[in-house]
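Problem: given the chain below (617 residues), write out its structure.
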Amino acid sequence: MSATLFSLLALFASGFFIYISHGLINVLLPLRLNFEQVSTGNIGLIMSMFSVGLLLGGVFTRRLMTRVGHIRMYTASAALAAISILICYLWFDEWVWAIMRILMGFCIAATNIVSDGWLSERSTSETRSRILATNQIVVLLSMFLGSFVVNIADVTHATLYIIAGLLLCGGVVPIAMGKATAPQVEDTVPMPMLQLIRTSPVGASSVLVCGLVLSSLLSMLSVYADSKGISGVNLSLLVGAAIIGGAALQFPIGYLADRLERRKVILYIVLFSIVCTLLIPTVLGFDFFIASLILISISSGIVSSLYPLGISETFDRLQQNQMSGAIGAIIIIYAAGGIIGPYIIGLVMEHIGIDYFFIALGLIQLVFAFFVVYRSKVRQSIPLDEQESFVPQGAAMGWVSSELDPRIEYVDTSTLSHEVAIAVDIAQLQPKLALKMVSILARSYPEQVLDFAKALASIEGIDVTELYQRLNKYDPNHEHQQELIQTIITNASGSTAELVDLVFKEADYEEVPELTTMITDADPDHSMEIFEAAAESVMEEHPETVVEIAEAYATSAATQLEEMRYADRLAEESELEQNISGMVDYISENTPEHADDIESVIPETLKHKDESPQKDA
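Solution.
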Protein backbone atom coordinates (compact mmCIF):
# COMPACT_ATOMS: atom_id res chain seq x y z
CA MET A 1 0.00 0.00 0.00
CA SER A 2 2.83 2.42 0.86
CA ALA A 3 4.40 1.78 -2.55
CA THR A 4 1.09 2.55 -4.24
CA LEU A 5 0.68 5.84 -2.39
CA PHE A 6 4.30 6.77 -3.15
CA SER A 7 3.70 6.18 -6.85
CA LEU A 8 0.82 8.68 -6.63
CA LEU A 9 2.96 11.35 -4.96
CA ALA A 10 3.11 13.54 -8.08
CA LEU A 11 -0.67 13.44 -8.42
CA PHE A 12 -1.20 14.35 -4.77
CA ALA A 13 1.37 17.17 -5.04
CA SER A 14 -0.40 18.56 -8.08
CA GLY A 15 -3.76 18.52 -6.30
CA PHE A 16 -2.19 20.13 -3.23
CA PHE A 17 -1.08 23.21 -5.17
CA ILE A 18 -4.34 23.51 -7.12
CA TYR A 19 -6.51 23.30 -4.02
CA ILE A 20 -4.43 25.80 -2.07
CA SER A 21 -5.29 28.19 -4.88
CA HIS A 22 -8.92 27.08 -4.78
CA GLY A 23 -9.09 27.72 -1.03
CA LEU A 24 -7.55 31.16 -1.50
CA ILE A 25 -9.94 32.11 -4.29
CA ASN A 26 -13.01 31.05 -2.27
CA VAL A 27 -12.11 33.65 0.37
CA LEU A 28 -10.56 36.30 -1.88
CA LEU A 29 -13.43 36.83 -4.32
CA PRO A 30 -16.31 37.39 -1.88
CA LEU A 31 -14.11 39.71 0.20
CA ARG A 32 -13.22 41.74 -2.90
CA LEU A 33 -16.85 41.89 -3.99
CA ASN A 34 -17.88 43.03 -0.51
CA PHE A 35 -15.11 45.64 -0.52
CA GLU A 36 -16.41 46.99 -3.84
CA GLN A 37 -19.88 47.26 -2.20
CA VAL A 38 -21.55 44.75 -4.51
CA SER A 39 -24.92 43.73 -3.10
CA THR A 40 -24.93 40.47 -1.15
CA GLY A 41 -27.55 39.12 -3.54
CA ASN A 42 -25.17 39.58 -6.46
CA ILE A 43 -22.26 38.22 -4.42
CA GLY A 44 -24.27 35.07 -3.78
CA LEU A 45 -25.19 34.84 -7.46
CA ILE A 46 -21.57 35.24 -8.61
CA MET A 47 -20.32 32.68 -6.10
CA SER A 48 -23.06 30.22 -7.09
CA MET A 49 -21.82 30.25 -10.69
CA PHE A 50 -18.98 28.04 -9.53
CA SER A 51 -21.49 25.18 -9.14
CA VAL A 52 -22.76 25.83 -12.66
CA GLY A 53 -19.22 25.21 -13.84
CA LEU A 54 -18.99 22.05 -11.72
CA LEU A 55 -22.12 20.74 -13.36
CA LEU A 56 -20.89 21.52 -16.86
CA GLY A 57 -17.52 19.97 -16.05
CA GLY A 58 -19.19 16.78 -14.88
CA VAL A 59 -21.17 16.55 -18.12
CA PHE A 60 -18.50 17.38 -20.69
CA THR A 61 -15.07 16.53 -19.21
CA ARG A 62 -15.07 12.82 -20.12
CA ARG A 63 -16.07 13.61 -23.70
CA LEU A 64 -13.23 16.09 -23.99
CA MET A 65 -10.75 13.63 -22.46
CA THR A 66 -11.48 11.10 -25.19
CA ARG A 67 -10.52 13.75 -27.77
CA VAL A 68 -7.44 15.41 -26.24
CA GLY A 69 -6.21 12.97 -23.58
CA HIS A 70 -5.87 13.12 -19.80
CA ILE A 71 -2.68 15.13 -19.43
CA ARG A 72 -3.73 17.78 -21.94
CA MET A 73 -7.13 18.06 -20.28
CA TYR A 74 -5.53 18.45 -16.86
CA THR A 75 -2.97 21.04 -17.91
CA ALA A 76 -5.46 23.00 -20.01
CA SER A 77 -7.92 23.13 -17.11
CA ALA A 78 -5.30 24.37 -14.66
CA ALA A 79 -4.14 26.99 -17.16
CA LEU A 80 -7.71 28.19 -17.82
CA ALA A 81 -8.35 28.42 -14.07
CA ALA A 82 -5.21 30.57 -13.73
CA ILE A 83 -6.37 32.78 -16.60
CA SER A 84 -9.81 33.19 -15.02
CA ILE A 85 -8.50 34.43 -11.66
CA LEU A 86 -6.08 36.84 -13.38
CA ILE A 87 -8.92 38.22 -15.51
CA CYS A 88 -10.86 38.84 -12.30
CA TYR A 89 -8.09 41.21 -11.21
CA LEU A 90 -7.63 42.89 -14.58
CA TRP A 91 -11.33 43.43 -15.29
CA PHE A 92 -13.65 44.10 -12.38
CA ASP A 93 -17.14 43.60 -13.70
CA GLU A 94 -19.89 41.51 -12.11
CA TRP A 95 -20.84 39.78 -15.37
CA VAL A 96 -17.21 39.02 -16.18
CA TRP A 97 -16.65 37.61 -12.69
CA ALA A 98 -19.76 35.43 -12.99
CA ILE A 99 -18.44 33.97 -16.24
CA MET A 100 -15.00 33.44 -14.71
CA ARG A 101 -16.59 31.61 -11.77
CA ILE A 102 -18.27 29.25 -14.23
CA LEU A 103 -14.91 28.66 -15.89
CA MET A 104 -13.25 28.04 -12.51
CA GLY A 105 -15.92 25.51 -11.57
CA PHE A 106 -15.52 23.72 -14.88
CA CYS A 107 -11.74 23.55 -14.46
CA ILE A 108 -11.90 22.27 -10.87
CA ALA A 109 -14.37 19.58 -11.94
CA ALA A 110 -12.16 18.63 -14.88
CA THR A 111 -8.95 18.36 -12.85
CA ASN A 112 -10.76 16.31 -10.22
CA ILE A 113 -12.30 13.92 -12.74
CA VAL A 114 -8.95 13.41 -14.46
CA SER A 115 -7.32 12.88 -11.06
CA ASP A 116 -10.00 10.35 -10.10
CA GLY A 117 -9.32 8.45 -13.31
CA TRP A 118 -5.62 8.17 -12.54
CA LEU A 119 -6.24 7.21 -8.92
CA SER A 120 -8.81 4.60 -9.94
CA GLU A 121 -6.41 3.09 -12.47
CA ARG A 122 -3.68 2.69 -9.83
CA SER A 123 -6.02 1.30 -7.17
CA THR A 124 -7.30 -2.20 -6.50
CA SER A 125 -10.45 -3.36 -4.74
CA GLU A 126 -8.39 -3.54 -1.52
CA THR A 127 -6.68 -0.12 -1.77
CA ARG A 128 -9.51 2.09 -3.08
CA SER A 129 -10.72 3.20 0.36
CA ARG A 130 -7.25 4.29 1.52
CA ILE A 131 -6.47 6.09 -1.72
CA LEU A 132 -9.82 7.91 -1.54
CA ALA A 133 -9.15 8.92 2.08
CA THR A 134 -5.59 10.10 1.30
CA ASN A 135 -6.80 12.17 -1.63
CA GLN A 136 -9.46 13.87 0.48
CA ILE A 137 -7.01 14.63 3.27
CA VAL A 138 -4.69 16.30 0.75
CA VAL A 139 -7.54 18.34 -0.74
CA LEU A 140 -9.03 19.50 2.56
CA LEU A 141 -5.64 20.33 4.08
CA SER A 142 -4.68 22.41 1.04
CA MET A 143 -8.02 24.27 1.05
CA PHE A 144 -7.58 24.96 4.76
CA LEU A 145 -4.10 26.41 4.16
CA GLY A 146 -5.38 28.38 1.17
CA SER A 147 -7.84 30.29 3.35
CA PHE A 148 -4.84 31.75 5.27
CA VAL A 149 -2.93 32.85 2.16
CA VAL A 150 -5.44 35.71 1.79
CA ASN A 151 -3.67 37.48 4.67
CA ILE A 152 -0.48 38.00 2.66
CA ALA A 153 -1.77 41.13 0.91
CA ASP A 154 -4.80 43.37 0.50
CA VAL A 155 -7.72 41.88 -1.48
CA THR A 156 -7.51 44.74 -3.99
CA HIS A 157 -3.82 44.21 -4.66
CA ALA A 158 -2.51 42.12 -7.55
CA THR A 159 -0.37 39.96 -5.25
CA LEU A 160 -3.11 37.52 -4.19
CA TYR A 161 -4.39 37.06 -7.74
CA ILE A 162 -0.88 36.39 -9.02
CA ILE A 163 -0.23 33.91 -6.20
CA ALA A 164 -3.45 32.08 -7.03
CA GLY A 165 -2.47 31.92 -10.70
CA LEU A 166 1.06 30.74 -9.89
CA LEU A 167 -0.25 27.96 -7.66
CA LEU A 168 -2.60 26.76 -10.39
CA CYS A 169 0.20 26.74 -12.95
CA GLY A 170 2.58 25.13 -10.45
CA GLY A 171 0.08 22.33 -9.95
CA VAL A 172 0.57 21.29 -13.56
CA VAL A 173 4.32 20.65 -13.21
CA PRO A 174 4.27 17.35 -11.24
CA ILE A 175 1.80 15.86 -13.73
CA ALA A 176 3.46 17.21 -16.87
CA MET A 177 6.89 15.97 -15.75
CA GLY A 178 5.65 12.59 -14.55
CA LYS A 179 5.17 9.30 -16.39
CA ALA A 180 1.42 9.02 -15.93
CA THR A 181 -0.33 7.01 -18.64
CA ALA A 182 -3.84 7.72 -19.85
CA PRO A 183 -6.36 5.48 -18.07
CA GLN A 184 -9.46 4.14 -19.78
CA VAL A 185 -12.29 6.68 -20.01
CA GLU A 186 -15.74 5.38 -19.07
CA ASP A 187 -18.66 7.77 -19.43
CA THR A 188 -21.47 6.61 -17.14
CA VAL A 189 -25.01 7.64 -18.04
CA PRO A 190 -26.68 9.24 -14.98
CA MET A 191 -29.78 7.58 -13.57
CA PRO A 192 -32.96 9.54 -14.41
CA MET A 193 -33.48 12.14 -11.69
CA LEU A 194 -37.09 11.21 -10.93
CA GLN A 195 -36.15 7.54 -10.58
CA LEU A 196 -33.45 8.42 -8.05
CA ILE A 197 -35.78 10.66 -6.06
CA ARG A 198 -38.53 8.03 -6.02
CA THR A 199 -36.05 5.34 -4.98
CA SER A 200 -34.61 7.32 -2.06
CA PRO A 201 -36.31 10.66 -1.27
CA VAL A 202 -34.32 11.10 1.95
CA GLY A 203 -31.02 10.26 0.23
CA ALA A 204 -31.65 12.73 -2.61
CA SER A 205 -32.83 15.49 -0.27
CA SER A 206 -29.80 14.97 2.01
CA VAL A 207 -27.50 15.65 -0.92
CA LEU A 208 -29.56 18.68 -1.99
CA VAL A 209 -29.51 20.19 1.51
CA CYS A 210 -25.76 19.60 1.72
CA GLY A 211 -25.32 21.53 -1.54
CA LEU A 212 -27.66 24.32 -0.40
CA VAL A 213 -26.20 24.88 3.06
CA LEU A 214 -22.53 24.00 2.62
CA SER A 215 -22.01 26.04 -0.55
CA SER A 216 -23.79 28.99 1.09
CA LEU A 217 -21.66 28.68 4.21
CA LEU A 218 -18.35 28.47 2.35
CA SER A 219 -19.29 31.21 -0.16
CA MET A 220 -20.87 33.79 2.15
CA LEU A 221 -19.24 33.20 5.56
CA SER A 222 -16.38 35.57 4.75
CA VAL A 223 -18.89 38.27 3.74
CA TYR A 224 -20.78 37.84 7.01
CA ALA A 225 -17.56 37.88 9.03
CA ASP A 226 -16.25 40.96 7.24
CA SER A 227 -19.48 42.82 7.98
CA LYS A 228 -19.02 41.99 11.68
CA GLY A 229 -15.48 43.37 11.71
CA ILE A 230 -13.80 39.98 11.71
CA SER A 231 -10.77 40.09 9.43
CA GLY A 232 -7.25 38.83 8.96
CA VAL A 233 -6.25 35.57 10.61
CA ASN A 234 -9.52 35.37 12.57
CA LEU A 235 -11.52 35.38 9.34
CA SER A 236 -9.28 32.66 7.91
CA LEU A 237 -9.79 30.64 11.08
CA LEU A 238 -13.57 30.86 10.66
CA VAL A 239 -13.42 29.65 7.07
CA GLY A 240 -10.76 27.06 7.90
CA ALA A 241 -12.89 25.73 10.76
CA ALA A 242 -15.76 25.17 8.33
CA ILE A 243 -13.45 23.26 5.97
CA ILE A 244 -11.78 21.09 8.63
CA GLY A 245 -15.08 20.38 10.34
CA GLY A 246 -16.31 18.92 7.07
CA ALA A 247 -13.71 16.18 7.37
CA ALA A 248 -13.28 15.68 11.11
CA LEU A 249 -16.89 14.83 11.96
CA GLN A 250 -17.46 12.33 9.17
CA PHE A 251 -15.73 9.52 11.05
CA PRO A 252 -17.79 9.67 14.27
CA ILE A 253 -20.97 10.26 12.27
CA GLY A 254 -20.06 7.34 10.03
CA TYR A 255 -19.58 5.17 13.12
CA LEU A 256 -23.12 6.01 14.26
CA ALA A 257 -24.57 5.61 10.77
CA ASP A 258 -23.28 2.03 10.53
CA ARG A 259 -24.71 1.03 13.91
CA LEU A 260 -28.04 2.89 14.12
CA GLU A 261 -31.00 3.34 11.81
CA ARG A 262 -29.68 5.75 9.21
CA ARG A 263 -32.62 8.13 8.95
CA LYS A 264 -32.65 8.58 12.73
CA VAL A 265 -28.95 9.46 12.61
CA ILE A 266 -29.65 12.02 9.88
CA LEU A 267 -32.53 13.52 11.86
CA TYR A 268 -30.66 13.80 15.17
CA ILE A 269 -27.45 15.27 13.74
CA VAL A 270 -29.44 17.82 11.69
CA LEU A 271 -31.35 18.92 14.81
CA PHE A 272 -28.03 19.29 16.62
CA SER A 273 -26.62 21.26 13.66
CA ILE A 274 -29.61 23.62 13.77
CA VAL A 275 -28.89 24.42 17.41
CA CYS A 276 -25.19 25.02 16.69
CA THR A 277 -25.99 27.15 13.63
CA LEU A 278 -28.41 29.42 15.50
CA LEU A 279 -25.98 29.82 18.43
CA ILE A 280 -23.08 31.04 16.26
CA PRO A 281 -24.14 34.72 15.92
CA THR A 282 -24.92 34.93 19.65
CA VAL A 283 -21.55 33.45 20.60
CA LEU A 284 -19.77 35.80 18.17
CA GLY A 285 -21.70 38.72 19.68
CA PHE A 286 -20.29 37.88 23.13
CA ASP A 287 -16.81 37.66 21.57
CA PHE A 288 -16.36 33.98 22.44
CA PHE A 289 -14.32 33.40 19.33
CA ILE A 290 -12.96 29.91 20.10
CA ALA A 291 -16.47 28.71 20.94
CA SER A 292 -17.71 30.09 17.62
CA LEU A 293 -14.97 28.17 15.79
CA ILE A 294 -16.13 24.96 17.48
CA LEU A 295 -19.77 25.63 16.61
CA ILE A 296 -18.95 26.39 12.96
CA SER A 297 -16.84 23.24 12.73
CA ILE A 298 -19.68 21.13 14.15
CA SER A 299 -22.34 22.68 11.93
CA SER A 300 -20.19 22.45 8.79
CA GLY A 301 -19.10 18.92 9.67
CA ILE A 302 -22.68 17.73 10.08
CA VAL A 303 -23.84 19.37 6.88
CA SER A 304 -20.84 17.96 4.97
CA SER A 305 -21.73 14.50 6.29
CA LEU A 306 -25.17 14.75 4.70
CA TYR A 307 -23.52 14.07 1.33
CA PRO A 308 -22.03 10.64 2.17
CA LEU A 309 -25.07 9.86 4.34
CA GLY A 310 -27.31 10.64 1.37
CA ILE A 311 -25.22 8.38 -0.88
CA SER A 312 -25.37 5.55 1.68
CA GLU A 313 -29.13 5.95 2.14
CA THR A 314 -29.57 5.88 -1.64
CA PHE A 315 -27.24 2.91 -2.16
CA ASP A 316 -29.22 0.97 0.47
CA ARG A 317 -32.13 0.90 -1.97
CA LEU A 318 -30.29 0.46 -5.26
CA GLN A 319 -29.01 -2.62 -7.03
CA GLN A 320 -25.24 -2.90 -7.45
CA ASN A 321 -25.37 -2.20 -11.20
CA GLN A 322 -27.32 1.04 -10.62
CA MET A 323 -24.78 2.69 -8.32
CA SER A 324 -22.48 4.27 -10.92
CA GLY A 325 -25.41 5.88 -12.72
CA ALA A 326 -26.84 7.06 -9.39
CA ILE A 327 -23.59 8.87 -8.52
CA GLY A 328 -23.98 10.94 -11.70
CA ALA A 329 -27.51 11.96 -10.71
CA ILE A 330 -26.44 12.65 -7.12
CA ILE A 331 -23.70 15.02 -8.30
CA ILE A 332 -26.28 16.90 -10.40
CA ILE A 333 -28.51 17.28 -7.32
CA TYR A 334 -25.55 18.47 -5.24
CA ALA A 335 -24.55 21.01 -7.91
CA ALA A 336 -28.16 22.24 -8.12
CA GLY A 337 -28.06 22.95 -4.39
CA GLY A 338 -24.74 24.74 -4.86
CA ILE A 339 -26.28 26.94 -7.55
CA ILE A 340 -29.44 27.84 -5.64
CA GLY A 341 -28.09 28.14 -2.09
CA PRO A 342 -25.62 31.06 -2.21
CA TYR A 343 -27.97 33.17 -4.34
CA ILE A 344 -30.96 32.66 -2.01
CA ILE A 345 -28.87 33.30 1.10
CA GLY A 346 -27.35 36.37 -0.56
CA LEU A 347 -30.84 37.74 -1.23
CA VAL A 348 -31.84 37.08 2.38
CA MET A 349 -28.77 38.95 3.62
CA GLU A 350 -29.49 41.83 1.24
CA HIS A 351 -33.23 42.31 1.76
CA ILE A 352 -33.84 41.04 5.30
CA GLY A 353 -30.51 41.65 6.94
CA ILE A 354 -26.97 40.38 7.26
CA ASP A 355 -27.82 38.98 10.69
CA TYR A 356 -30.22 36.47 9.11
CA PHE A 357 -27.37 34.56 7.47
CA PHE A 358 -27.24 31.77 10.05
CA ILE A 359 -31.00 31.89 10.68
CA ALA A 360 -31.64 31.17 6.98
CA LEU A 361 -29.19 28.25 7.06
CA GLY A 362 -30.93 26.90 10.16
CA LEU A 363 -34.39 27.17 8.56
CA ILE A 364 -33.27 25.14 5.52
CA GLN A 365 -32.08 22.39 7.84
CA LEU A 366 -35.30 22.58 9.89
CA VAL A 367 -37.48 22.02 6.81
CA PHE A 368 -35.29 19.04 5.91
CA ALA A 369 -35.68 17.62 9.44
CA PHE A 370 -39.48 17.73 9.12
CA PHE A 371 -39.20 15.92 5.78
CA VAL A 372 -37.08 13.15 7.33
CA VAL A 373 -39.68 12.68 10.08
CA TYR A 374 -42.42 12.43 7.45
CA ARG A 375 -40.53 9.87 5.35
CA SER A 376 -39.77 7.78 8.44
CA LYS A 377 -43.51 7.45 9.06
CA VAL A 378 -44.52 6.50 5.51
CA ARG A 379 -41.71 4.07 4.61
CA GLN A 380 -40.27 1.11 6.42
CA SER A 381 -36.61 1.30 7.41
CA ILE A 382 -34.04 -1.14 6.07
CA PRO A 383 -32.76 -3.57 8.74
CA LEU A 384 -29.49 -2.43 10.34
CA ASP A 385 -27.50 -5.44 9.16
CA GLU A 386 -28.63 -4.76 5.58
CA GLN A 387 -27.42 -1.14 5.42
CA GLU A 388 -24.56 -0.16 3.13
CA SER A 389 -21.32 0.87 4.82
CA PHE A 390 -20.74 4.59 5.31
CA VAL A 391 -17.84 5.92 3.21
CA PRO A 392 -16.50 9.39 4.16
CA GLN A 393 -16.50 11.76 1.18
CA GLY A 394 -15.45 15.39 1.30
CA ALA A 395 -18.29 17.46 -0.09
CA ALA A 396 -16.48 20.60 1.10
CA MET A 397 -14.03 20.28 -1.79
CA GLY A 398 -16.83 21.12 -4.22
CA TRP A 399 -16.55 17.92 -6.18
CA VAL A 400 -16.76 14.38 -4.89
CA SER A 401 -15.01 11.29 -6.15
CA SER A 402 -17.23 8.57 -7.60
CA GLU A 403 -14.84 6.16 -9.29
CA LEU A 404 -13.00 5.39 -6.03
CA ASP A 405 -16.08 4.63 -3.93
CA PRO A 406 -15.39 1.06 -2.72
CA ARG A 407 -19.12 0.20 -2.74
CA ILE A 408 -19.34 0.63 -6.50
CA GLU A 409 -18.48 -2.56 -8.34
CA TYR A 410 -14.74 -2.65 -8.95
CA VAL A 411 -13.62 -2.73 -12.56
CA ASP A 412 -10.21 -4.29 -13.17
CA THR A 413 -8.15 -1.79 -15.16
CA SER A 414 -4.98 -3.88 -15.37
CA THR A 415 -3.28 -3.75 -18.75
CA LEU A 416 -3.25 -6.65 -21.17
CA SER A 417 -0.08 -8.62 -21.74
CA HIS A 418 1.70 -8.12 -25.06
CA GLU A 419 0.50 -11.49 -26.38
CA VAL A 420 -3.15 -10.91 -25.42
CA ALA A 421 -3.03 -7.39 -26.86
CA ILE A 422 -1.83 -8.81 -30.20
CA ALA A 423 -4.74 -11.27 -30.26
CA VAL A 424 -7.22 -8.49 -29.45
CA ASP A 425 -5.86 -6.22 -32.19
CA ILE A 426 -6.21 -9.00 -34.76
CA ALA A 427 -9.69 -9.98 -33.52
CA GLN A 428 -11.00 -6.46 -33.94
CA LEU A 429 -10.03 -6.58 -37.62
CA GLN A 430 -10.33 -10.28 -38.53
CA PRO A 431 -12.18 -12.39 -35.91
CA LYS A 432 -11.68 -15.69 -37.79
CA LEU A 433 -7.97 -15.06 -38.25
CA ALA A 434 -7.68 -14.21 -34.56
CA LEU A 435 -9.08 -17.64 -33.61
CA LYS A 436 -6.35 -19.33 -35.62
CA MET A 437 -3.78 -16.97 -34.13
CA VAL A 438 -4.95 -17.70 -30.59
CA SER A 439 -4.16 -21.41 -31.04
CA ILE A 440 -0.54 -20.52 -31.75
CA LEU A 441 -0.37 -18.09 -28.83
CA ALA A 442 -2.11 -20.46 -26.39
CA ARG A 443 0.32 -23.25 -27.31
CA SER A 444 3.26 -20.95 -26.54
CA TYR A 445 1.70 -19.26 -23.49
CA PRO A 446 -0.66 -21.78 -21.84
CA GLU A 447 -0.55 -19.85 -18.56
CA GLN A 448 -2.46 -17.02 -20.30
CA VAL A 449 -5.37 -19.16 -21.54
CA LEU A 450 -7.88 -17.43 -19.24
CA ASP A 451 -6.58 -13.98 -20.25
CA PHE A 452 -7.10 -14.85 -23.93
CA ALA A 453 -10.60 -16.09 -23.13
CA LYS A 454 -11.61 -12.95 -21.22
CA ALA A 455 -10.25 -10.52 -23.79
CA LEU A 456 -11.45 -12.24 -26.98
CA ALA A 457 -14.91 -13.39 -25.82
CA SER A 458 -16.04 -9.78 -25.46
CA ILE A 459 -15.18 -8.89 -29.08
CA GLU A 460 -18.11 -8.87 -31.45
CA GLY A 461 -17.85 -11.45 -34.22
CA ILE A 462 -15.84 -13.98 -32.20
CA ASP A 463 -17.27 -17.52 -32.28
CA VAL A 464 -17.13 -18.31 -28.55
CA THR A 465 -17.68 -22.05 -29.14
CA GLU A 466 -14.62 -22.29 -31.36
CA LEU A 467 -12.70 -20.05 -28.95
CA TYR A 468 -13.45 -22.49 -26.13
CA GLN A 469 -12.44 -25.53 -28.18
CA ARG A 470 -9.12 -24.00 -29.24
CA LEU A 471 -8.19 -22.71 -25.77
CA ASN A 472 -9.31 -25.85 -23.97
CA LYS A 473 -7.06 -27.88 -26.23
CA TYR A 474 -3.99 -26.05 -24.94
CA ASP A 475 -5.05 -25.77 -21.29
CA PRO A 476 -2.52 -28.03 -19.49
CA ASN A 477 -4.33 -31.13 -18.20
CA HIS A 478 -7.60 -29.17 -18.55
CA GLU A 479 -7.04 -27.84 -15.04
CA HIS A 480 -9.01 -24.68 -15.72
CA GLN A 481 -11.78 -26.10 -17.89
CA GLN A 482 -14.70 -24.95 -15.73
CA GLU A 483 -13.07 -21.58 -15.12
CA LEU A 484 -12.48 -21.26 -18.87
CA ILE A 485 -16.15 -21.96 -19.60
CA GLN A 486 -17.26 -19.48 -16.95
CA THR A 487 -14.86 -16.79 -18.20
CA ILE A 488 -16.04 -17.07 -21.80
CA ILE A 489 -19.75 -17.09 -20.93
CA THR A 490 -19.39 -14.17 -18.50
CA ASN A 491 -17.60 -11.97 -21.04
CA ALA A 492 -19.29 -13.12 -24.28
CA SER A 493 -20.74 -10.31 -26.38
CA GLY A 494 -23.26 -12.54 -28.16
CA SER A 495 -25.24 -15.76 -27.72
CA THR A 496 -23.59 -18.64 -25.88
CA ALA A 497 -26.34 -21.22 -26.49
CA GLU A 498 -24.19 -23.31 -28.85
CA LEU A 499 -21.29 -23.35 -26.38
CA VAL A 500 -23.61 -24.38 -23.53
CA ASP A 501 -25.00 -27.27 -25.60
CA LEU A 502 -21.48 -28.42 -26.45
CA VAL A 503 -20.34 -28.30 -22.80
CA PHE A 504 -23.26 -30.43 -21.63
CA LYS A 505 -22.87 -32.94 -24.47
CA GLU A 506 -19.17 -33.45 -23.64
CA ALA A 507 -19.72 -33.75 -19.88
CA ASP A 508 -20.41 -36.92 -17.89
CA TYR A 509 -23.92 -36.96 -16.50
CA GLU A 510 -22.57 -36.75 -12.91
CA GLU A 511 -20.92 -33.41 -13.76
CA VAL A 512 -24.01 -31.80 -15.28
CA PRO A 513 -25.62 -30.49 -12.01
CA GLU A 514 -22.38 -28.76 -10.98
CA LEU A 515 -21.83 -27.40 -14.49
CA THR A 516 -25.38 -26.06 -14.54
CA THR A 517 -24.90 -24.02 -11.38
CA MET A 518 -21.55 -22.75 -12.64
CA ILE A 519 -22.95 -21.66 -16.01
CA THR A 520 -26.10 -20.06 -14.54
CA ASP A 521 -23.83 -18.09 -12.17
CA ALA A 522 -21.98 -16.79 -15.23
CA ASP A 523 -25.17 -16.01 -17.18
CA PRO A 524 -28.08 -15.64 -14.69
CA ASP A 525 -30.31 -13.92 -17.26
CA HIS A 526 -30.65 -17.21 -19.20
CA SER A 527 -30.97 -19.60 -16.25
CA MET A 528 -34.07 -21.34 -17.58
CA GLU A 529 -32.59 -21.89 -21.05
CA ILE A 530 -29.40 -23.29 -19.48
CA PHE A 531 -31.45 -25.64 -17.27
CA GLU A 532 -33.36 -26.95 -20.27
CA ALA A 533 -30.13 -27.56 -22.22
CA ALA A 534 -28.69 -29.42 -19.24
CA ALA A 535 -31.88 -31.44 -18.78
CA GLU A 536 -32.01 -32.46 -22.46
CA SER A 537 -28.41 -33.71 -22.31
CA VAL A 538 -29.29 -36.31 -19.62
CA MET A 539 -33.01 -36.85 -20.16
CA GLU A 540 -32.75 -39.90 -22.35
CA GLU A 541 -30.32 -42.03 -20.33
CA HIS A 542 -30.44 -40.53 -16.83
CA PRO A 543 -33.80 -38.79 -16.31
CA GLU A 544 -33.38 -38.84 -12.51
CA THR A 545 -30.43 -36.43 -12.90
CA VAL A 546 -32.85 -33.68 -13.96
CA VAL A 547 -34.07 -33.48 -10.37
CA GLU A 548 -30.47 -33.21 -9.16
CA ILE A 549 -29.88 -30.38 -11.65
CA ALA A 550 -32.89 -28.45 -10.35
CA GLU A 551 -31.90 -29.08 -6.74
CA ALA A 552 -28.30 -27.95 -7.35
CA TYR A 553 -29.51 -24.78 -9.06
CA ALA A 554 -32.07 -23.98 -6.36
CA THR A 555 -29.61 -24.60 -3.53
CA SER A 556 -26.88 -22.49 -5.16
CA ALA A 557 -29.30 -19.69 -6.06
CA ALA A 558 -30.81 -19.62 -2.57
CA THR A 559 -27.35 -19.45 -0.98
CA GLN A 560 -26.33 -16.60 -3.26
CA LEU A 561 -29.59 -14.83 -2.52
CA GLU A 562 -28.87 -14.85 1.19
CA GLU A 563 -25.43 -13.31 0.55
CA MET A 564 -26.74 -10.53 -1.71
CA ARG A 565 -27.19 -6.91 -0.76
CA TYR A 566 -30.69 -5.99 0.39
CA ALA A 567 -31.80 -4.23 -2.81
CA ASP A 568 -30.30 -6.88 -5.09
CA ARG A 569 -32.02 -9.64 -3.15
CA LEU A 570 -35.40 -7.94 -3.45
CA ALA A 571 -34.91 -7.67 -7.21
CA GLU A 572 -33.73 -11.28 -7.63
CA GLU A 573 -36.24 -13.07 -5.40
CA SER A 574 -39.10 -12.92 -7.87
CA GLU A 575 -36.90 -14.07 -10.76
CA LEU A 576 -35.61 -17.02 -8.74
CA GLU A 577 -39.14 -18.01 -7.80
CA GLN A 578 -40.16 -17.81 -11.46
CA ASN A 579 -37.21 -20.00 -12.52
CA ILE A 580 -37.96 -22.60 -9.85
CA SER A 581 -41.59 -22.69 -10.89
CA GLY A 582 -40.52 -23.17 -14.52
CA MET A 583 -38.25 -26.05 -13.56
CA VAL A 584 -41.02 -27.75 -11.60
CA ASP A 585 -43.34 -27.44 -14.59
CA TYR A 586 -40.63 -28.75 -16.93
CA ILE A 587 -39.97 -31.83 -14.79
CA SER A 588 -43.68 -32.49 -14.27
CA GLU A 589 -44.21 -32.43 -18.02
CA ASN A 590 -41.12 -34.29 -19.24
CA THR A 591 -40.39 -36.70 -16.37
CA PRO A 592 -43.69 -37.00 -14.49
CA GLU A 593 -42.37 -39.99 -12.54
CA HIS A 594 -40.03 -37.59 -10.72
CA ALA A 595 -42.57 -34.82 -10.11
CA ASP A 596 -43.01 -35.78 -6.45
CA ASP A 597 -39.23 -35.71 -5.93
CA ILE A 598 -38.88 -32.15 -7.15
CA GLU A 599 -41.86 -30.93 -5.17
CA SER A 600 -40.27 -32.24 -1.95
CA VAL A 601 -36.82 -30.79 -2.71
CA ILE A 602 -37.48 -27.25 -3.94
CA PRO A 603 -39.48 -25.81 -1.01
CA GLU A 604 -36.65 -26.68 1.42
CA THR A 605 -34.21 -24.47 -0.46
CA LEU A 606 -36.59 -21.52 -0.47
CA LYS A 607 -37.49 -21.41 3.23
CA HIS A 608 -35.40 -18.25 3.62
CA LYS A 609 -37.91 -16.35 1.48
CA ASP A 610 -40.50 -16.50 4.23
CA GLU A 611 -37.98 -15.12 6.70
CA SER A 612 -36.57 -12.31 4.56
CA PRO A 613 -37.60 -8.67 5.16
CA GLN A 614 -40.61 -7.53 3.19
CA LYS A 615 -40.16 -4.97 0.48
CA ASP A 616 -40.64 -1.37 1.59
CA ALA A 617 -44.00 0.20 1.00
